[in-house]
Amino acid sequence: MYREQIDAYIDAHKEQLIDDVMKLVRIDSQRTQEEPGKPYGEGPAEVLEAAKELMDSYGFAVRNYENRVVTGDFNEKEKQLDILAHLDVVPVTKDWTVTEPFKPVIRDGKIYGRGTADDKGPAMAALYAMKAIKDLGIELDYNVRLILGSDEECGSSDLVYYYGIEKEAPMSFTPDADYPVINIEKGHFSKKFHAAFEDCEALPKIVKIQGGDKVNVVPANAKAVILGLEEQAALDAAKKAENETKVKFTVTKNQEEIVITAKGVAGHASTPEVGNSALTALLQLLAGLEAAPSQGFDRIRALAELFPHNDYYGKGMGVDMEDEISGKLTMNLGVFQYSPTSLSGQFDSRVPICGTEENVTRVGKKNMEEAGLTMEEGPMTPPHHVPGDSVFVQTLLESYETYTGIKGKPLAIGGGTYVHGLERGVAFGCMVPEVDNHMHGDNEFMDIDMLVTSTKIFADVIVKLCKK
Ligand SMILES: [Zn+2]
Q1: Which of 66, 219, 322, 372 could form a disulfide with 279 if both were Cys (CB 3.0 to 4.6 A apart)?
Q2: Cβ-count burial of 351 within 10 angstroms (0-12 exposed, 13-18 middle, 19+ buried)?
């Protein structure tokens, strides 16, 4: 019954909303060196202060948590809903063409500038949703708190600090990802491993392997150096492996050394099946060579069995599993290096909600040990799940449908959002799959219609959840 009033208010305050987004975008809030009282540097502290001033001037009770987080409370009643957004931004390149990253402009119904979509625009949408309700004199029976952090892009230590002081609300959402609602985030099982062994003089022998740069990326490049191997044997093995794996191999002879380079296709660890790992293909090739027996070569062959090429789902490690709502476990061997006396590497596995310490961490550790590899200690980051049929998720979906006309259903993703660590948090907005807003890239923008619609959706949600 408040909907028409709220919508009219938001339409009437669109220019002011845009101005406030641009005000925050003008502050370069990339994380820099820590300074006294400014744990993430000058920019993040400055943007938090600017947001605090806005919230204060709109009548909300504000608090600054040591320049890591600022909050604005709607009222002093029992807390029902937290909205979490962040005001730090990722680094910029010099390749922006529409405008400079921190000089926002409006073109064709879009605001361009670093942070417009991630996450200053959505943060201001949440603030204006609260402001609309307040200015219209609509009373809420419960509190809604806007929590604005400044370290989302570099590890979310802002929230660790905040939740060391404050309790989690019964419901939380972050407009820092996609519509409709992300209610399932897979767990994260990413571990380093290593082994040490005796050098062995016998030839042919593998003296070096190097593959991958980042653990969360499917390696597109890998390389091995072998001593005492016939060039023809290397060429034959490369041809066979290329047929089997579709990874491109190049063999070169450098005096006594044979160098094999592998070129695959990169991909994100949460969707490894879109890539083609140069590293696992190279391990498969090497494991099939007629190398002299050695402890090191045994480890390479064991590793090729733990991480078989084209096994994106952890079968080799014995941890393959899936469930209906969150899908399959994924596995990526992201980085690896080998020398005649040691090896080390790290894998990145995304775990569906059926995964536990028992059936993932312990099984992986045991199977690595049997292969002569030592996996680093410690639990995995457990999966995150807020039931899709809960009142909270259903309310979000209903408001989304009302304003977009699109039937919404909950989503499961492999990556982690700002609320991964919360028991009752979901991601809600503001991206839609049809629009690529260049988040983290050049010429990032926020679509103004989407900004306004999101503000209305958030206001609708707040009223439904915080008014009896
Ligand atoms: Zn973000």
Answers
A1: 219
A2: buried
Catalytic residues: 88, 152
**What CATH number was assigned to the domain covering residues 2-186+384-466?**
3.40.630.10
Calpha distance 242→247 (Å, rounded): 5
Tokens standing for residue 117: 């979509």
Q: Exposed e or buried b for every residue in 247-273, given b needs 16+ CB within 10 A?
A: bebebeeeeeebebbbebebbbbbbbe
Residue with tokens 């994380």: 31
| Nearest residue to 279 via CA among 234, 321, 217, 330 | 217
Looking at 288-419, list the stretches that DSSP marks H as alpha helix, in order from N- to C-terminal side. Answer: 295-306, 362-370, 391-404
Structure tokens at 173: 């959402």
3 state DSSP class of 250: strand
pTM: 0.83
Handedness of CA 115, 116, 119, 123 (dihedral sign): positive
Distances (CA, A) of 445 to 78, 95, 112, 148, 413: 36, 15, 4, 20, 23
Answer yes or no: are the C-beta atoms of 451 and 431 closer than 8 Å.
no
pLDDT tens for residues 201-252? 999 999 999 999 999 999 999 999 999 999 999 999 999 999 999 999 999 9
Compute the distance from residue 71 Cα to the ligand 1 centre, in Å. Answer: 17
| Predicted local confidence at residue 433, as pLDDT | 82
Q: What angle do CA 283, 285, 286 make, to 5 degrees?
A: 65
What's the CA-to-centroid distance between 153 and ligand 1, angstroms?
Answer: 7
Question: Which residue carries 């991601």 as its tokens?
Answer: 427
Largest CA distance in the chain: 84
Give the fold, CATH level 3, of 192-375.
Alpha-Beta Plaits (3.30.70)
Task: Say how many Å lie between the CA of residue 418 and the centre of ligand 1.
Answer: 7
Q: Write the single-letter amino acid at 457.
A: I
User: Is the Cβ–Cβ distance between 157 and 31 less than 8 Å?
Assistant: no
49 C-alpha to ligand 1 centroid (Å): 19
CB 144 within 8 A of CB 466: yes
**Domain assignments of the chain as residue spans, ordered by start:** 2-186+384-466, 192-375
* Residue 294 vs residues 24, 344, 419: alpha-carbon distances, Å: 60, 17, 48
Mean pLDDT calculated for residue range 61-75: 98
Sign of the CA dihedral with 101 first, then 105, 106, and 111 last? positive
What is d(CA 83, CA 171) in angstroms, rounded to the nearest whole number?
Answer: 9
